[in-house]
Amino acid sequence: MFGFLPVISINFVSNTYKMIREIGKENTIFNRFLSELRDANIQQNRMRFRRNMERVGEIFAYEISKTFSYSDTEIVTPLGIAHMHLPVEKPVLATILRAGLPFHQGLLNYFDDSDSAYVSAYRKYTKDEDFTIKLDYVSAPSLDGKVLIISDPMLATGGSLVAALKGLMLNGEPKHIHVVTLLASDEGIMKLKRHFSLKPFTLWVGAVDDELTAKAYIVPGLGDAGDLAFGQKED
Question: Is CATH 3.40.50.2020 correct for 19-68+89-213?
Answer without folding.
Answer: yes
